[in-house]
Amino acid sequence: MAEPDRILHVLGVLRRAGAESMVMNISRTIDRTMLQFDFVICYEEKDSFVEEVEELGGRVYKMPPFGPGTVFSFIKAWNDFFKEHSEYKVIHGHMRSTASIYLSIARRYGLVTIAHSHSTSSGQGLSAVVKDLLQFPLRRTADYLIACSNNAGVWLFGKKAVERENYFVLKNALDAKAFSYDGEKRCAARAALGLGDKLVVGHIATFVPLKNHAFIIELFQALLEKDNNAVLLLVGDGDIRDDVEQLARERGLGQHIIFTGVRKDIPALLSAMDVFVLPSKWEGLPLTAIEAQASGLPCILSDVITQDTKISPLVSFLPLDAGREAWAEKILAVYDKDYKRPDML
Q: What is the pLDDT of residue 180?
């Protein structure tokens, strides 16, 4: 039997998060007698997708991270990789900040190159400026340009590039049936977490500044002042989790907030929630908001998030500068304890 064509995906990590989950959703459903997804990462994390990738027949390679003192070792590592792995014909770059470097090297070894935009910002500060400079050549480096939304495409590749024939919008996909509402899972999850009949406001994301956890704490404090039967469920982990937990303690909210860490039972947790909030400072096309809608969950998103995210009437958009009171009022407006979750399939 002929070996499948192997596609090399480049990601910083294989954490259980947006871009990584999107690629894994596809990897689970492809005909692996024809195609196989392999991965290059720079960092390893516990509770990641690495084990599942290997169970699906994929390979995971480790590359040194890029930094001021590792430029030459980074370039050498990629050259050495392609010398040793002539089996790859296609490379799909999701780690955009260094993509213009590793995709350029890949092209010299004859690979077809794909650059994929999952965001609409590099953040703030000096590191953001450096990232913007590094990724600017991508619009000319890659053979194909892909974005999760047109906003994400224009931001990374420019207005002229998205008019070319080699540009495509590939909206984040998932198995909707896997996230459909389940009453039994709702009861089991709420019992396990001690939620009882409380109003459960949920959020699922990596703890990084763009997800705006500090604002979530603010709006939840305002919500508690209006309804003290509320609980905040924060799912995920990340660099600023300790800071967010400290903020919650300082505000006296510790007993009203549950930090679950990284979880594999996301569909059950979505079923357990009553309202989903995502007050991000920027996004490409957040997969968690699509998952929440598949679960029939009312969603409140910041208005900087692309309208493409709204695939059902369940989504409301609010500006961040509307403030915590407006967000709290909106939660109460969309919440109905007798709400019958719709079948979204």
A: 94
- Above 60 in pLDDT, residue 344? no
The secondary structure of 253-316, three-state, reads CHHHEEEEECCCCHHHHHHHCCEEEECCCCCCCCHHHHHHHHCCCCEEEECCCCHHHCCCCCEE
Higher pLDDT, 43 or 199: 199
Q: What is the pTM of this model?
A: 0.87
Are 201 and 230 in contact by the 8 Å Cβ rule? The answer is: yes
Q: Which two tokens stand for residue 332?
A: 């109460």
Cα–Cα dist 82/111, whole Å: 9
Tell how far CA 149 is from the center of its chain. 13
- Torsions phi, psi for 41 (to 5 deg): -130, 165
- CA dist 231 and 257 (Å) reads 6
Inter-helix orientation angle 71-84/99-108, to 10°: 40
The closest alpha carbon to 111, from 208, 40, 54, belongs to: 40
- Structure confidence at residue 2 as a pLDDT band (50, 70, 90): confident
